[in-house]
Amino acid sequence: MRSRRGQALFKARLNDTIRLDTLFVPFHYAASGCANLLTQRALDPQSHIPGFKLSMVAIERAEAPGEA
Q1: For residues 53 and 35, what is the distance between their CA atoms, to the nearest angstrom?
Q2: Are 38 and 55 in contact (CB under 8 A)?
Q3: What's the pLDDT at 36?
Q4: Taking the mean position of all CA atoms in its chain, how far away is CA 31?
Q5: In degrees rounded to 5, what are phi and psi of residue 35?
């Protein structure tokens, strides 16, 4: 998964109860699975809170280890 800010690698799980244009990634993890690698740097002009919960991303299938 990548955005203008960075990229991260996650294991996907498809679910028919979530809209196709919606993606959820827990943001409590570090290293390559850190969702905040993808988020905007901009702060809300009033509250000065980072926009960690809203970012556009591109999703691509990654090769599994041993897959070529």
Answers
A1: 9
A2: yes
A3: 75
A4: 13
A5: -60, -30
Pairwise CA distance, residues 9 & 12, whole Å: 9
Q: How far apart are CA 6 and CA 55, in angstroms?
A: 11
Q: Answer yes or no: are the C-beta atoms of 55 and 40 closer than 8 Å.
A: yes
Token pair 């990229």: residue: 7
Residue 57 confidence (pLDDT): 85
Tell me if 39 sits within 8 A of 55, measured CB to CB: yes
For the record, the structure tokens of 66 come out as 């041993």
How high is the mean pLDDT in each 10-residue block of the chain (68 residues)?
85 85 76 74 82 79 74
pTM exceeds 0.70, yes or no: no
